[in-house]
From TrEMBL:
Family stated for the protein in its record: Belongs to the ROK (NagC/XylR) family.
SUPFAM superfamilies: Actin-like ATPase domain (SSF53067), Winged helix' DNA-binding domain (SSF46785)
InterPro entries in alphabetical order: ATPase_NBD, ROK, ROK_cs, WH-like_DNA-bd_sf, WH_DNA-bd_sf
Pfam families: ROK (PF00480)
PROSITE patterns, per database record: ROK (PS01125)
Highest taxon in the source lineage: Bacteria
Organism: Leifsonia tongyongensis
Protein name: ROK family protein
Leader peptide range in chain numbering: none
Length: 421
C-alpha cells in the first residue's frame, strides 16, 4: 500500500513537492495539525488530507494526540516518525574516536569514545571505528541505518568524501572514507571536515535560519567552519575556512603541513605546547613547571587551565595565540561579515583571557560596519557536539537536499541520494 502510494506520487512533480513540504513542515515543527498545514501551504482541506494520508502510508508521519480546540472540533496532531531510522555518526579527532547513534530528529541516544592517534592510518582507524559502532548497534534496539556522517580533522572533498592532503593525517590523502562505511551499512554516507560539523551545531542553537556565522576551533590544529545564510559554505573544493595555514607575518616556523609560517605553527594547541616546553627547559617556573615536576605532560588543556589559575607563562602563551588568531579572523570578518563568531576547542577553555585578545584584534583590524553588530562568543558545547553536528549534517542532506530523489522508496538508499547525471 505504502509502495503504491509512493509510486503514484512519484509520477507527479507538483504533488511530489507538496508532499515533501507537508512531511518537512511536520518534521521541523512548523506545523502540527492538518489545518496548520493548510494555512502554511495554501492547499485545500481535501488535498491536505490526501497528502497527509500518503505520508502516513509511507511511514513518515503518524497521528498523535488531539490538539487544542479553537471553537470547533479539536484537530488531531501529527508527528514525524523520527524513530523509524538511525543515523550513525563517526567523529574522528587527532587523538580520539567518538561514535554515536541518533534518531532522525537529531537526538543522540547512544555514544562511545576512546583515545586514538589518527596517525595510525585510515585502515586501522576505520576498522576501530566500525567495531565501536557495531558494539553500539548491538546494545540498542535495532533500527535500520538510514545515513552515516563522518567528521575528520582535515580538508575534505565533500563530493567524493575523501581527505585532501590532511596535514596531521599521514596516509589519508585521497582515501575513500565513504566507501568503507557504505559497504558496512548499505546506507548513504557523508564525510566532512570536523569543524563544519561543529558549525552546524552552533547554527542549530540559534533561531535565525539564515544566519551568517563563523565557528573557529583552536585545538591541536586550527580551522574555521563558515555558515552563510544558514548553509555551510565549503567553497569550490571543500577548502573554505582553512585558516590554520594562512601565513603569519615575519614567521619562519616550520608547520606540520610542510610549509613555514602558518598560523597553526604559531598559535595552535601543539604550537603552544611546544613553546611551553621550550620555556620550561629554559628554566621557567609556575604551575606548568610543577606539572612537569610531577611527571605529567603539558597539553593544550593544561595550558588553558593554568592560564585561568593565573600562571604567567600560560597566560602569555594563550594571549599570543589569541592575538594571532584574532588577526586572521579579522580578515574573514572583512570579507564574510558574519553576525556571530564562535570560538571553540581546547585552547579556548582559557575563557575571557583568550576571548578578550581575539575581540581586541578583530575590532582593531576589521571595518566598523563589519563589526557593528558582531558578537564574539565562546562555544558552550559539550563533548557530544561533534555527534550532534554529524546528525545535523545527515538530516540536512537527507531531508533538504536529497529528499526528492529517494522519498518514493520511503527510505534512503546509496543510489537514491545521488544527483542525476
Amino acid at each position: 500500500m505504502a509502495r503504491d502510494s509512493a509510486l503514484r506520487f512519484g509520477a507527479q512533480t507538483d504533488e511530489v513537492m507538496s508532499l515533501l513540504r507537508v512531511v518537512n513542515l511536520v518534521r521541523t515543527g512548523e506545523a502540527e495539525t492538518r489545518p496548520e498545514i493548510g494555512r502554511l501551504t495554501g492547499l485545500g482541506r481535501g488535498v491536505v488530507t490526501q497528502r497527509v494520508e500518503a505520508a502516513i502510508e509511507m511511514g513518515f508521519l503518524e497521528d498523535g494526540e488531539f490538539g487544542p480546540s479553537s471553537g470547533g472540533r479539536a484537530p488531531r496532531t501529527l508527528r514525524f516518525r523520527s524513530e523509524q531510522g538511525t543515523i550513525v555518526i563517526c567523529a574522528l579527532g587527532a587523538l580520539h574516536i567518538r561514535v554515536g547513534l541518533a534518531t532522525l530528529d537529531g537526538e543522540v541516544y547512544a555514544e562511545a569514545h576512546r583515545e586514538w592517534d589518527i596517525g595510525r592510518g585510515p585502515a586501522e582507524t576505520i576498522d576501530m571505528s566500525l567495531g565501536m559502532i557495531d558494539e553500539l548497534l548491538g546494545e540498542h534496539d535495532h533500527r535500520p541505518v538510514w545515513a552515516v556522517a563522518v567528521g575528520i580533522p582535515g580538508p575534505v572533498d565533500f563530493e567524493t568524501g575523501s581527505p585532501v592532503a590532511p596535514p596531521i593525517m599521514p596516509g589519508w590523502n585521497g582515501f575513500d572514507v565513504r566507501r568503507r562505511f557504505e559497504q558496512r551499512f548499505d546506507a548513504p554516507v557523508w564525510v566532512d571536515n570536523d569543524v563544519n560539523l561543529l558549525a552546524l551545531v552552533e547554527r542549530s542553537h540559534r533561531r535565525d535560519d539564515n544566519i551568517d556565522l563563523i565557528y573557529c576551533k583552536v585545538g591541536s590544529g586550527i580551522g574555521a567552519g563558515l555558515v552563510s545564510h544558514g548553509r555551510i559554505h565549503r567553497g569550490a573544493n571543500g577548502a573554505a575556512g582553512d585558516i590554520g595555514h594562512v601565513r603569519v607575518r615575519d614567521s619562519e616556523t616550520p608547520c606540520r603541513c610542510g610549509k613555514v609560517g602558518c598560523l597553526e605553527a604559531e598559535a595552535s594547541g601543539w604550537a603552544i605546547v611546544r613553546d611551553a616546553n621550550r620555556a620550561l627547559n629554559e628554566g621557567a617556573g609556575g604551575i606548568l613547571a610543577a606539572l612537569v615536576a610531577r611527571g605529567e605532560q603539558i597539553t593544550p588543556e593544561a595550558v588553558s587551565i593554568a592560564a585561568t589559575d593565573g600562571d604567567a607563562l600560560a597566560i602569555g602563551l594563550v594571549q599570543r595565540s589569541a592575538r594571532l588568531i584574532g588577526e586572521s579572523i579579522a580578515g574573514l570578518v572583512n570579507m564574510f561579515n558574519p553576525a556571530v563568531i564562535v570560538i571553540g576547542g581546547a585552547v579556548s577553555a582559557a575563557g575571557e583571557i583568550f576571548l578578550a585578545e581575539v575581540r581586541q584584534r578583530v575590532y582593531e583590524l576589521s571595518l566598523p560596519l563589519a563589526t557593528r553588530d558582531l558578537a564574539i562568543v565562546r562555544s558552550v558545547g559539550d563533548e557530544r557536539e561533534p555527534l550532534r553536528g554529524g546528525a545535523e549534517l545527515a538530516i540536512e542532506e537527507l531531508f533538504e537536499v536529497t529528499f526528492p530523489r529517494w522519498f518514493a522508496l520511503a527510505r534512503p538508499t546509496i543510489d537514491g541520494v545521488k544527483a542525476p547525471a
